[in-house]
Amino acid sequence: MAIHFKYSTVKRPDGTSVKTPSIPITLIGKSNQFDSIALIDSGADISAISQEFAELLGLDLDKEVDFAYGIGGKVNSIETSVSIIVEKDHEKYYINLPVKVILGNYDFPMLLGRSGFFDKFVISFDETKERVSLKKIQVGKF
Amino acid sequence: MQQTKQTNYEFFLKTDMSDLIGQWVAISNGKIVAHGESPKKVMAEAKEKNPKDRILLVRVPDKETMIF
Domain-by-domain residue ranges, chain A? Predict the structure, then answer.
């Protein structure tokens, strides 16, 4: 079975709207557990969150500083992990996800990149129906 | 999905948040309970108001959501 999520729509002051393939997740850290909305980003090698978001969760940031590259340029980052829950209806999946914490004063919603996530589901984007579908890959456990 | 999580998510999907673009928004029991620039401050305010309730913390995306 696949689980489906409608694209999130944000209306803009100029009358236009932005629709994104975002899904509800539960984030679990050492300090906090809460729900959020994450943007599925098939162009990202790995998931990413902001430093302040990581600190709020209490993620382990005592690691070597590395870099993350993208159209925003080169930024300092730390690779760590975060536990997330993806669920809908009767399907519920716990995933320990590698994530890059983007250091500094960057502010953005959590991005779900390919590493550790796209190998758990077959992910389909349906622009005409404005929905994203996740179908669990049955091989192995996660 | 648990009812409160589903309720908060559905509220997020249907609510016009164009006045809150670029801000973090905390939703609990199907309503906005806090919003602002800092996710830490927004979560702290939401927990103070709704200490026992489930909270959905979202950032209302800018037009140019940054992709690394």
Answer: 2-130
What percentage of chain B has pLDDT greater than the value 90?
A: 60
Give A109's pLDDT tier (boundaries 50, 70, 90): confident
**ipTM rounded to 2 decimals:** 0.90
Q: Is A26 exposed, middle or buried (CB count within 10 Å of its CB: 0-12, 13-18, 19+)?
A: buried
Provide the number of CB pairs (under 8 Å) joining chain A to chain B: 94
Q: Report chain B residues whose CB lies below 8 A from the CB of A34.
A: 43, 54-57
Closest residue in chain B to residue A9, using alpha carbons only: B13
Banded model confidence at residue B68, pLDDT cuts 50, 70, 90: very low
- Residues from chain A that touch B37, judged by Cβ atoms under 8 A, are 107
Place of tokens 């994203």: A132
Residue A37 — φ and ψ, nearest 5°?
-120, 125
A2-130 folds as: Cathepsin D, subunit A; domain 1 (2.40.70)
- A68: nearest CA in chain B? B68
Closest Cα of chain B to A81: distance in Å? 17
